[in-house]
């Protein structure tokens, strides 16, 4: 007789484990199946994000920022250091500790909420049925009132630059280098490529990013993207747009990767010590659904869902990277909560137009809502307010005045349509824009709000004032 649950979740990344916890909180008997194992063959919760994605990359971004700050910025504060040294092994060990602590924390949350953690493979075998194959032991059939699919995603592979695990790596491999590459190539100048390139550039690599798109950060507001390109170029990132990689090979004798690419000026060849392929991710849905199950997937392996993340099979839901929308951990987590609450009978919904996006470079880039070019294309009348951090007292005190806050409001209703930030702590400041848009705030609402002084958040206040044509700490635009 098969074991029965109220809910079975397949996948324990940010979408899956959050869904499982919320289901358990709502009184449902819940199991979460996950296949992730660490280098020692032990099961680990957290999926790609916690193990080889968001968390370890941010740990290295923070460490590399501290290293660069110690070498180039502290003297402006009257702090002089002698003999700065990089201990890459210790830096990597710290990154691993951060990851281990957080994944163990999820284990504790599962125990506290009585979620059954099933280590192995899960496959949807029918409506309300899941085939579970443990890492050790025989497969068994499980039953559930509802099933939530949260398989996550995997890096997109390029036929022209196949991984070899040493010289040509994906984003996970780029977090495990045992020495700083002298010359590092990165295919893709999107979020992942910029973050990983920034880590190794700060630690001493010469970094070249090959981006097939003709325009930098096409998904960002064009003013912010233009500013970001100038800043990153000044920092030393060699960003080559319109560069389409035609092929690559590994010269093991010389320990080099040879890359051939084409742009508007012809064909070129570059040699690197290491090559990172960061051209996006695809849903990890291979083998997730038994062939006989009628569940709709598109040609990319994306699961088709409705507005509430229910698939074409009643009682089966899908969340996170395997469904439409941005591949962001926080988006997947909120989808998991929405699904859990809807299973419990609550009328919860997601607001996809107020999901924040962040690039954790230095400076950080963050945004929510519409871009200026999108508003122009839609012929939406709008006002724009921009305030540079160079005019911020707190940013001046921090010696970190790069970038700006930009707010876009509807010209007729004054409702906030988009908030865009490039600069210090942009990932934190953008939350103010998200909250304002969630409450359908106007530019006047932000302009009438009292912000503490001196803080970086005053730049949000001033940008809102600028949309109304009355900035205080900046000359009025002509």
TrEMBL record:
FAD binds at residues 58, 122, 321, 327-330. GO terms for biological process: 2-oxoglutarate metabolic process. Residues 5-336 form the FAD/NAD(P)-binding domain. One of its GO terms (molecular function) is dihydrolipoyl dehydrogenase (NADH) activity. The active site is at 453 (proton acceptor). GO terms for cellular component: cytoplasm. It catalyses: N(6)-[(R)-dihydrolipoyl]-L-lysyl-[protein] + NAD(+) = N(6)-[(R)-lipoyl]-L-lysyl-[protein] + NADH + H(+). NAD(+) binds at residues 188-195, 211, 280. It is an enzyme of class 1 (oxidoreductase). Binds 1 FAD per subunit. It is found in: Cytoplasm. Residues 355-464 form the Pyridine nucleotide-disulphide oxidoreductase dimerisation domain. Keywords: Cytoplasm, Disulfide bond, FAD, Flavoprotein, NAD, Nucleotide-binding, Oxidoreductase, Redox-active center. Disulfide bonds join 49-54. Its main location: cytoplasm. Its EC number is 1.8.1.4. Its cofactor is FAD. The active site is a redox-active disulfide bond. Belongs to the class-I pyridine nucleotide-disulfide oxidoreductase family. PANTHER family: DIHYDROLIPOYL DEHYDROGENASE (PTHR22912:SF224), DISULFIDE OXIDOREDUCTASE (PTHR22912). This is Dihydrolipoyl dehydrogenase. The lineage of its organism: Bacteria, Pseudomonadati, Pseudomonadota, Gammaproteobacteria, Chromatiales.
């Amino acid at each position: 007789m098969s074991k029965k649950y109220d809910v079975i979740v397949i996948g324990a990344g940010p979408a899956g484990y959050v869904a499982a916890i919320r289901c358990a909180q709502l009184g449902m008997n819940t199991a979460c199946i996950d296949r992730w194992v660490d280098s020692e063959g032990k099961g680990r919760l957290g999926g790609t994000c916690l193990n080889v994605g968001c968390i370890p990359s941010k740990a290295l971004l923070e460490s590399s920022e501290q290293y660069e700050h110690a070498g180039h910025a502290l003297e402006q504060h009257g702090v002089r250091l002698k003999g700065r040294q990089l201990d890459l092994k210790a830096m990597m060990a710290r990154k691993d500790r951060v990851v281990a602590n957080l994944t163990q924390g999820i284990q504790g949350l599962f125990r506290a909420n009585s979620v059954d953690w099933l280590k192995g493979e899960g496959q949807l075998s029918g409506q309300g049925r899941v085939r579970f194959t443990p890492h050790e032991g025989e497969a068994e059939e499980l039953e559930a009132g509802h099933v939530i699919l949260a398989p996550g995603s995997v890096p997109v592979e390029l036929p022209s630059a196949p991984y070899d695990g040493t010289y040509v790596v994906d984003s996970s491999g780029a977090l495990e280098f045992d020495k700083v590459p002298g010359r590092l190539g990165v295919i893709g100048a999107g979020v992942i490529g910029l973050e990983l390139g920034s880590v190794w550039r700060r630690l001493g690599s010469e970094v070249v990013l090959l981006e097939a798109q003709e325009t930098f950060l096409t998904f960002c507001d064009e003013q912010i993207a233009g500013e970001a390109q100038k800043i990153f170029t000044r920092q030393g990132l060699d960003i080559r747009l319109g560069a389409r990689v035609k092929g690559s090979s590994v010269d093991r004798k010389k320990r080099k990767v040879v890359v051939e690419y084409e742009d508007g000026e012809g064909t070129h060849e570059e040699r690197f010590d290491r090559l990172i392929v960061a051209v996006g991710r695809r849903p990890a849905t291979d083998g997730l659904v038994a062939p006989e199950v009628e569940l709709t997937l598109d040609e990319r392996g994306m699961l088709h869902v409705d507005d509430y993340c229910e698939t074409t099979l009643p009682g089966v839901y899908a969340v996170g990277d395997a469904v439409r929308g941005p591949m962001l951990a926080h988006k997947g987590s909120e989808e998991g909560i929405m699904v859990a609450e809807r299973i419990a009978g609550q009328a919860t919904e997601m607001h996809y137009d107020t999901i924040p996006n962040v690039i954790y470079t230095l400076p950080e880039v963050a945004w929510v809502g519409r871009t200026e070019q999108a508003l122009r294309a839609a012929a939406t009348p709008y006002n724009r307010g921009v305030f540079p951090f160079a005019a911020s007292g707190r940013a001046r005190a921090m010696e970190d005045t790069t970038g700006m806050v930009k707010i876009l409001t509807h010209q007729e209703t004054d409702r906030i349509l988009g908030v865009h930030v490039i600069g210090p702590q942009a990932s934190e400041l953008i939350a103010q824009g998200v909250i304002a848009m969630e409450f359908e705030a106007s530019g006047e609402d932000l302009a009438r709000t009292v912000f503490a002084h001196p803080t970086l958040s005053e730049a949000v206040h001033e940008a809102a004032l600028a949309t109304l044509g009355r900035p205080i700490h900046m000359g009025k635009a002509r």
